[in-house]
Design brief:
The protein is mostly helical and about 130 residues long. Helix content is about 70%, strand content about 0%.
């Protein structure tokens, strides 16, 4: 295996930063939507218990989306930190290098393909994003 070239690392860094900005925009939009369609507004318009359940569901879904986006940003920040300290592209489980095509597809990957497959098999009860 060969280490990432400076050009590859630069492309991955740019990709991570672009993803971070895109996710921040999605969070901003979701928060604006949450503010405009707040639970109190939805609940105030309910006509029956079914409508109240829908209001609860919509509020929960929006909060779950925001939570997922926040977790994605955390993964991006961790990847950028690993770049800064020189550990980016190294599998956290086996210490081998993570192949460029995997990092290009999942720039926040923390494991090589075989370790990720083993991790998913062992921890299959709670699916985790590309790690």
């Amino acid at each position: 295996m060969s280490a990432l070239t400076n050009q590859q690392l630069g492309r991955l860094k740019d990709k991570l930063k672009a993803q971070r900005e895109e996710i921040r925009e999605h969070i901003h939009e979701a928060l604006l939507h949450e503010e405009n369609e707040s639970y109190a507004d939805l609940a105030g318009r309910v006509r029956d218990i079914g409508d109240e359940s829908i209001a609860d569901l919509l509020s929960d879904i929006n909060l779950a989306v925001i939570s997922k986006h926040a977790a994605d940003i955390t993964g991006i920040e961790q990847a950028l930190h690993r770049m800064g300290v020189g550990t980016y592209g190294t599998c956290v489980d086996c210490g081998d290098e993570i192949e460029y095509p995997r990092l290009d597809a999942y720039p926040t990957a923390r494991r090589c393909v075989s370790c990720q497959a083993r991790h998913e098999h062992t921890h299959s009860t709670a699916p985790e994003g590309p790690g």
